[in-house]
Amino acid sequence: MFSRKNRARGLLRFTLLGLILGSFISVLLISELIVATNPPVKPPLGLSYVNTNGYQTRFQQWGASSKRPIVLIHGAFESSDSWVPVATLLARSNHVEAYDLKGYGYTSHVGPYTAEALAQQLYAYLLARKLSHPILVGHSLGAGVIARFVLDHPHVAAGIVFLDGDGLQLTYPGKFFTDLIPSLYLSALYQTAIHSGFLIRTIFSAACGRHCRPLSSQALAAIQRPLEVVGAEAALLAYAQHPIVGVTVPQLRRLRSVGIPSVVIFGSKDSEFSARSAYQTATRIGAPSPTIIRGAGHLSMWSNPVQVANAIDRFIGRLN
C-alpha cells in the first residue's frame, strides 16, 4: 500500500516535470520562431540627418529658415513624426524643427540614454543646425530633456514649453522585471507587441483620449517602423532599466532662478497627469497659470493640434 502511494506520487512528479519541461521547450521554440520571422527593417529612404557628437540624429523641418526657430522634442515611444500636425500649423509664422531622441525614431541607437546624454544631444543638435535662441517645446519625457538642458545651458533657449509633461524623473521597476525574464523571451514579447496593430492602437487610444481620431494605417506604420529597426529593441530595454528621463523637484525649482520665459500646456483628460500636476509644474518652473486643453488626453499634440499650436503661438507672441 505504502509502495503504491509512493509510485503514484513519483508518477505525478514525473508528469508535472514533463509538463513544465515541455511547456518551457514549446515557449522557447515559439520565441525563437517569433524572433526569426521578424528581422529588423531599414529606415525609409530620403530622411534628413545631422551629426551630433559623432552619431547621426534624424530631423525634420518646416517653415522659412529666416523666422524664429522652434525645436520640438518628443516623448517616450514617439518620434519627430508625432509633431507633424502641430509643426505644420506653427510653420505658418515660425521656423520649426523636430528631431528623434537617441534610442527612438531613426536616430542612431547609441547609449547612454540618461537625461544628461539627451540634453547633450539637444545642445549638439542646436549647434549643428545653427539655431540661435530657439523656443524649446517638450512633450512628456521631452519636458524632462528640456529641464535638464536648461540647467546645463541656462542662456541658450529663448523660451520653454512643457506639453503634457512635468519634467520630473520617475523610477519604476522595469529592471526588476527585465532581469527576471530570459532575453529570448523578452525579444519575443517585444516582437509580438510591436507587430500587433490591435495592441498599439489600443495603447494609443488610451493615451490619446476618447476624442482622439483613430490611427490610420499610415499613422500606425509610422509608429511601428521605428520600433523595428536595428537597435530599437535594445535601446527601449535600456530605457526601461533606468528612471524615466527628467530631473528632481529641487532641480526643477531651480528653473525659476534661470528666468527663461515658460509656459505649461496640459490636456484636461491626461491619463498620466492631473490638472493639479499642471499647476504644480507651472509654479515650480515659474510659469503663469497653465493652459488646459479641454477634453485632450496625454497626446494633445495629436488630438488637438490647433489648440496646442495656438497656445504656443500666443506664448511666442508675448516674447516679441
**CA gyration radius, whole angstroms:** 23 Å
Biggest sheet descriptor: 8 strands, mixed
From the coordinates shown, what is the CATH architecture of the domain at 48-172 and 241-319? 3-Layer(aba) Sandwich
C-alpha termini separation:
95 Å
**Helix/strand/pairing class, anyone?**
alpha/beta
H-E order: HEEEHEHEHEHHHHHHEHEHH
CATH secondary-structure class of the domain at 48-172 and 241-319? Alpha Beta
CATH topology of the domain at 48-172 and 241-319: Rossmann fold
What's the mean pLDDT score? 84
Strand content: 5-15%
Textual characterization of the structure:
This protein is an alpha/beta fold and 320 residues long. It is globular and about 50 Å long. It has 13 helices and eight strands. 49% of the residues lie in helices and 13% in strands. It has a domain at 48-172 and 241-319: Alpha/Beta hydrolase fold, catalytic domain (Rossmann fold, 3-Layer(aba) Sandwich), CATH 3.40.50.1820. The model is unreliable at 1-36 (pLDDT under 50). A hairpin with a 2-residue loop joins strand 1 and strand 2 (55-62). It has helices spanning 2-36, 84-90, 115-129, 141-152, 174-180, 183-194, 197-208, 217-224, 232-240, 249-258, 275-285, 300-303, 305-319; strands at residues 48-52, 55-62, 69-73, 95-99, 135-139, 159-163, 262-267, 291-293. Helix 2 packs across helix 13 (305-319) and helix 4 (141-152) crosses helix 10. It has an eight-stranded mixed beta sheet with strand order 1-2-4-3-5-6-7-8, with helices on both faces.
